[in-house]
What we know:
Blueprint lengths: L7 H10 L7 H11 L1 H5 L20 H41 L3 H4 L12 H18 L4 H10 L4 H4 L5 H9 L3 H11 L3 H19 L17 H5 L4 E2 L2 E2 L6 H11 L2 H21 L5 H8 L13
Antiparallel strand pairs: 1-2
Amino acid sequence: MNKIFKNLDEQIEILKSRNLTIEDEEKAKKVLLRENYFFINGYRHMFVDPSKGKKFIDGSTFDELYATFLFDRNIRNIMFKHLLIVENNAKSIISYQLSKKYGYKEKDYLDPKNFTQDSLKVRQVHDIITKMKRQVRLNGQQHTATMHYISNYGYIPMWILVKVLSFGIIAELYNILKPEDQKAIADIYKINAEDLSIYLYLLANFRNLCAHEDILYDHRTQKEIPNCKYHQLLNIHMTEDHYDYGKNDLFAVVIILKQLLLKDQFNEFIREIGYEMDILDGKVSSIPLNIILNKIGFPTNWRDIINYE
């Protein structure tokens, strides 16, 4: 069945027919025009009564729905800002390690011999090197730094190339490094090399959501981060030996950032997230905050992570 166009009045009527209270219809129309009905409606799940189909719970309002939309936008912006710090750090550390060990010209650091010799990853190594070489071709004449090196030196060093590589490619690149190189990089963060591989994958996934303004609050990744001390310290509830929060959700990102950001950076991140939580709690009364936290994947004592080393 095709979805047909609905004008603003029709969009308002649909929301009202589903038991959503709209106190100022003109204001709601302006919001829907500016923000898009489809995206606003993407936050309805928190306010819907499953036993009543698509009906909103009694007392829920358009203002609450919009506040949830704005909360997600603000959380996304906070996440994005701090994910960019981690992305830049990872690029710098990986490029330093490879340049130091294998040389600073593409023909040196992109030599297949420099990567894992695992027979199961031969194709993956080839594909990622090809992606990186393609980035050299595509961005060599567009990016100021790469153009400078090509024009003046005839090559692009690794520490410049990483600036034009996506976080996704960086995560893939780390995954094909030799075990000793992975360990050298992970040691800088004081974490396990296999854990870092999963962390980079998950962060790249959430980073793309942030960059494309996708709904963030209830996103779950396919991969899960390993159990760690923060799950234990926060006494996160378990269901059949599986932690309910902090595995492949937004709180998993918080746990990763705890380990990859500097202490001051992480503390600022938590304060900013907490501020947005408090604003949302003050604007939404039809559902309790713990329901919202549950949807995001946050335990009720999530702020306590700031107190643990």
